[in-house]
């Protein structure tokens, strides 16, 4: 079993024990690695800490329990490991943006976090045909500036640079240098 399969096995373990007091050591054991490395790998691969993932999953399941059953909020809180209604309410609001009692109402806008799964996609394994050519040395001249952001957002700054280069004689000077090197 490779490490992707082990990470998926850990997620399955979490899902099967989501209402239990989950222990990071047991989860890491399923993934066949230390708790330290499991937590580091998890946050690296998902962008969120393991504890946050578990909290989001529990709150997604909790809202389903609140909506489909006549369970009391305190019973749902206890089911998902919260011994205090205040702690459950705080966790619930941080995920869904509303209180558990508001989530029970029809039409309430809630969030759902599905179980994650890991897969690896390898690109670039195909060959790329190319050739290397030798060229005589040449000189490159121009104007440079630093641009940041997305390419589409650079149209206006680049146009201003061209306009300034035209107005201050840089374009004329570049053309003059080009004529002397040809």
Text of the CATH class of the largest domain: Mainly Alpha
- Briefly note the structural class of the backbone: mainly alpha
Query: What share of residues are in beta strands?
Result: under 5%
Number of beta-strand segments: 0
Q: What shape does the CA trace take?
A: elongated
Give, in order, the helices and strands.
HHHHHHHHH
**What is the mean pLDDT?**
88
Question: Explain this structure to me?
Answer:
- By secondary structure, this protein is mainly alpha-helical.
- It has two domains: 3-103, Arc Repressor Mutant, subunit A (Orthogonal Bundle); 138-182, no CATH class.
- Helix content is 55%, strand content 0%.
- It is built from nine helices and no strands.
- The longest helix has 19 residues, at 50-68.
- The N and C termini lie far apart (63 Å).
